[in-house]
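Target chain:
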Amino acid sequence: MQVLEILGGILTLLGSLFLLLASIGIVRMPDTYNRMQTGTKATTLGSLLFFIGIGLAHPQMWGKITALIIFILITNPLSSHVLARALHYTGVSPILKKKRDMHTESRDDLRSDILEYEAQQHAESDIQSSGTHSDPGVSEDFIADAAAAENRKAADGKSGSRKKPASTAGGSTS
């Protein structure tokens, strides 16, 4: 029994070390995709080692720990995949530097990601406020029709008048 408790303590400490390294890696990695990979892999392994260590030290908790382990094994990779796919869909590209550029450029960090996001949000708000649209898949006619519809809605809202619904032909409503 003493050996299982010592082994459980060692695995719990090792799991905690992996969790610490994951948190440091999230701050140190150069781009969002690498941060996500670091967080997912290291926290999955760290959590598993931590829970296995607790299970060895306290065998009566194996049922709950097994459920937690299964939950972590399913949700960590799945959530990481969904987040990475959403990032890719929104156009965030990973940093791919050539070896010669790695020594001359500073690495990307969280601050530059935040500044880039804020600049993108500011640009989107400028586009919305100016009424222009830069999406090549949307035609100018569509934009003009949408603007005209918005103007009609605004005019209808200001005058307070509503159009009467068209009556059915040859019948009365009761």
